[in-house]
Amino acid sequence: MQNLFSNQEPQKRELKLPDAEVVFYESFFSEIESKKIFKALKENIDWQQNEIKLFGKIHLEPRLTAWYGTKAYAYSGIEMQPKDFTKEILQIKNRVEEATNLCFNSCLLNYYRDGKDSMGWHQDNEKELGKNPAIASVSFGQERPFQMKHIENRPLKKVDILLSNGSLLLMKGAMQHFWQHKIPKTTRIIDERINLTFRKIL
């Protein structure tokens, strides 16, 4: 399989937030790379739609998901068994690890089909992730706002980051213990988006 990536050095900026270490790479992948990667992921990933229990009722998750890596993972009552990394995911993972000097062994993929697909307020603080987990979030396709709010410092304003096509958002430090984040719904007619969140399961 041909290499999907260029050798350009991505530009990064650090967000100054309390109780969090957040680094944003707006053009981690080029437009040409991102288009190829999106097509490969959409066609080759084993997507599924899980059921989730909210307020005593069973609902379908408002997006499609997939779990790849070396270990099982559970969140919100959903248990996901890992599939072997595809060549595309491995290439993306290697690129992310080289830029961040981190090592990941698992990846949660989310496929947002339209504006009605979303992710509610949550923290990635499951015990399997360990203390102060590092999570690298890569986005392809339609840009979507990523919203953050501090769970203790209520007067602190919400933070909005536009996750653009080909971007990388790195979350580290105590962020998952002090901040919640979400991808909100929108009534606008928008295109599809695929997101990969690389993490290390202990």
Care to describe what's here?
The protein is built from three helices and 15 strands. The protein is an alpha+beta fold and 202 residues long. Helices cover 16% and strands 37% of the residues. The strands form four sheets. The chain has a seven-stranded antiparallel sheet with strand order 1-2-13-10-15-8-5. A four-stranded antiparallel sheet has the order 9-14-11-12. The protein has a two-stranded antiparallel sheet with strand order 3-4. It starts with 12 loop residues before the first strand and ends with a strand. The chain has one domain: Jelly Rolls, CATH 2.60.120.590. A hairpin with a 2-residue loop joins strand 6 and strand 7. The N terminus is likely disordered. The protein is globular, with a radius of gyration of 16 Å.
Question: Assembly type of the shown chains?
Answer: single chain
CA-based gyration radius? 16 Å
Q: Count of helices? A: 3
End-to-end gap = 31 Å
Mean pLDDT: 92
Total beta-strand segments: 15
Strand count, sense and closure of the main sheet? Answer: 7 strands, antiparallel
Counting structural domains, the number is: 1
Low-confidence stretches: 1-7
Question: What series of H and E elements makes up the topology?
Answer: EEHEEEEEHEEEEEEHEE
Tell me the name of the CATH homologous superfamily: Alpha-ketoglutarate-dependent dioxygenase AlkB-like
Level of helix content? 10-25%
Topology:
Blueprint: E1 13-15, E2 21-25, H1 31-44, E3 51-54, E4 57-60, E5 64-69, E6 73-75, E7 78-80, H2 87-100, E8 106-112, E9 119-122, E10 135-141, E11 144-150, E12 159-163, E13 168-172, H3 175-178, E14 179-183, E15 193-199
Antiparallel strand pairs: 1-2, 2-13, 3-4, 5-8, 6-7, 8-15, 9-14, 10-13, 10-15, 11-12, 11-14
